[in-house]
Amino acid sequence: MPLDTVRHDKDADPLEIVTVPCLSDNYAYLIKGPDGVAVVDAPEAAPLINALDTRGWKPEALMITHHHPDHHGGTKDLRARFPSMVVMGPKAEADRLPTLDLALEPGFEGGSGTGRFHVLQVPGHTLGHIAYYYPDASTEGGALFSADSLMVMGCGRLFEGTPAQMWDTLQRLMTLPDDTLVYPGHEYTQSNTRFALEVEPDNADLVARAAVIDALRAEGRPTVPAKLGLEKATNPFLRAHLDTLKNAVGMAKREDAEVFAHIRAWKDRF
Ligand code: ZN
Ligand code: FE
């Protein structure tokens, strides 16, 4: 599915999205829409059960993004508390996930109304990693639950995929509308920002954003979600094709994927 052809229904009722901090720096999310409540990733059960109970919500579905335990370790306990909850996740990683009631393949479309979502293939961090995209999440635009693929001011480490795979993933995600809200799997924004400033110290948008991020974190507040348009202006991993970034890292005229590979490897050592 070409992502830029997904229609956005501006009249749809907005989804209610709740950010739930888990473990040391993971995020899970509650999504309340026309079909009920869904949970994106279950790093651990207790904070999720607490967030659901305080609202009197019962989840219809758990949507797992990839096989790393910090994204599904709470599944058993969450399922024990909500036995009718449907557990879904990437079919390609089913052998390394809790038992799936629904094994998803890229291109799958589910839900209805505002809760209509698309399963996107986002390999790089792991090979079977999927993201969940809700085109009608708000009157402004969609919501992308990207976990450890596109992250705020960064992207996931390449445990299984190649730099070229991740670059392809990010290029596809960049075709989504600029007002798409990005909901990643971790609060890594501040350290990602320090790296971004190392790569592009003269990027004025980035310098301004760094101050906003530091202020949020000083108050212990999440930096998520982030607008895709702002990510394109400041996240170095979405800028490997731009002359400004290539010049900043001394790689003018080099291939985009090569520049991406360079900054991804640099970040690993940072
Ligand atoms: Zn991961
Ligand atoms: Fe993770």
What structural keywords apply?
about 270 residues; alpha/beta; Metallo-beta-lactamase, Chain A; six-stranded mixed beta sheet; 14 strands; globular; binds zinc ion; binds fe (iii) ion
Give an overview in words.
With 270 residues, the protein is of the alpha/beta class. It has a single domain, classed as Ribonuclease Z/Hydroxyacylglutathione hydrolase-like (Metallo-beta-lactamase, Chain A), CATH 3.60.15. Helices cover 30% and strands 22% of the residues. The chain has helices spanning 45-55, 75-81, 163-173, 189-199, 204-218, 228-234, 243-248, 256-269, and strands at residues 16-22, 26-33, 36-40, 59-63, 86-90, 102-104, 109-110, 117-121, 130-134, 143-147, 150-151, 154-155, 181-184, 226-227. The protein has a 6-stranded mixed sheet, with helices on one face. β4, α2 and β5 form a beta-alpha-beta unit. α3 (163-173) packs across α8 (256-269) and α4 (189-199) runs antiparallel to α5 (204-218). The longest helix has 15 residues, at 204-218. It is globular, with a radius of gyration of 18 Å. 48% of the residues are buried.
